[in-house]
Amino acid sequence: MVTDTVRIALVGCGTIALGMHLPGIQAIAAMGKAELVAVCDAVEEKARAAQERFGVPAYYTDLQTMLCQADFDVLVNTTPIPAHYPVTMAALQAGKHVYTQKPLATSVEECTRLLEEARRRGLMLACAPEHPVRPVIQTMARLVREGAIGRVAFARVQSSHDGPEKHDVPRDSTWYYKPGSSPILDLGVHGLSQITSILGPVRRLACFSGRTLPVRFITAGPFAGKRIDVEIDDNSLLMLDFGDATFAFLDATYCVEASRGPRLELYGSEGTLSLEGRTSRGAALYLYESARKAWREVEVPPAPPVRDLGVWHMVECLREGTPLRLTAEHGRHLVDIMTSAPQAAAEGRAVELQTTF
After folding, report:
1. Residues 162, 220 contacting (CB under 8 angstroms)
2. pLDDT at 312 over 80
3. Which of 101, 146, 292, 316 has its CA 20 to 30 A from that of 326?
4. What three-state secondary structure class fits 350?
5. How far apart are CA 184 and CA 161, in angstroms?
6. Average of per-residue pLDDT across 171-195
7. Which residues does 8 contact at the CB level (< 8 Å), separation at least 6?
8. What's the mean per-residue pLDDT of the chain?
9. Is residue 2 over pLDDT 90?
10. In Å, what is the CA distance from 299 to each residue of 147, 195, 263, 275?
11. Is the pLDDT of residue 1 over 60?
């Protein structure tokens, strides 16, 4: 498909849609590259509020009704994690391209079924996180390929924060601590997306995981004061093996109140790459060159002028006919890692990964 204007519908009018995707799509539409034609949420108040706030022509409370009645090319799936698979499958079966929030699904088997459905119908299936298309991650991957730090030995990846219950957003954060959620799925996916975009697929992994606090309390936002009984591991550390003695360790926890360390650092035989700050908030990239025994800041190309780089990328691929970087194969590999980590922790052994990309 090559088109001038991509018609978009979005399902799931929650925090991430309101704060990231809908403003992003609105910005893309203002450039004449896309058109937001419909929004959908099972809660009518949310759907109507999103329609009014972003000037959307129509809202729906039922996905199948929107798939039948609204005329669009791409469905942006920002529903809760358990709904990702059925919503994406329904959209593919209705002949729609799909961009879905992470994770692609909750099992490798579900991911494979989505991949096969998209291929069978000749549809584009893209998956967040958008780190593979961030200029800073692309620059790091290029420098590694070019040998700027020699042979990579290992990397450190920080994918933690202090817990969603401490963030001043209009949501009840209880579900983050219930079965089906985890900081690996919520936060670790970002670090995993970044490091695999640079070093490629993981071959095997090991994991330590546990629960540090049995009870937490929401401290900000409209639900402040609510007690949360923690039912999942809030503290997981992953060891990743990329083959050929190249390793990484990654934290995925709700246990980091503050940090002054880099978000991502790679160590090679001839230097170090260090990423300081969040990639979505103007991170700085530094290169230590052993030959010079000195650090220098690396210039990174500017990102497109929208926060929602994932939908931007998919729109550009559909408009220009260019290859998709946020592939479902990569998304499936991330699901493979994230579902294998708890198994590795429970069994106390390294687990081989089933997938690649």
Report:
1. no
2. yes
3. 146
4. coil
5. 12
6. 95
7. 25, 34, 35, 36, 37, 72, 73, 74, 75, 76, 311, 315
8. 96
9. no
10. 17, 20, 18, 12
11. no
Give the pLDDT of residue 4. 84
Q: What is the pLDDT of residues 190-229, one digit of tens each?
A: 999 999 999 999 999 999 999 999 999 999 999 999 999 9
The model's pLDDT over 96-115, given as tens digits with 9 standing for 90+, comes to 999 999 999 999 999 999 99
Which pair of structure tokens corresponds to residue 206? 């090991």
Q: Give CA–CA dist 141/119, Å, rounded.
A: 28
Burial class (CB in 10 A: 0-12, 13-18, 19+), 348: exposed
Longest CA–CA span in the chain (Å) reads 63
DSSP alpha helices (H): ranges in the chain?
15-16, 22-30, 44-54, 63-69, 84-93, 108-121, 135-145, 183, 189-199, 309-320, 328-347
Q: Are 112 and 50 in contact (CB under 8 A)?
A: no
CB 297 within 8 A of CB 163: no
- Chain centroid, CA 58 distance in Å: 28
Packing angle between helix 84-93 and helix 108-121, nearest 10 degrees? Answer: 10
Report the pLDDT value the prediction gives residue 111, as an integer from 0 to 100: 98
Name residue 284's beta-bridge partners: 276
Q: Quick one: tokens of 354?
A: 């089933």
d(CA 196, CA 330): 9
The answer to whether the CB of 277 falls within 8 A of the CB of 181 is: no
Cα 21 off chain centre by: 13
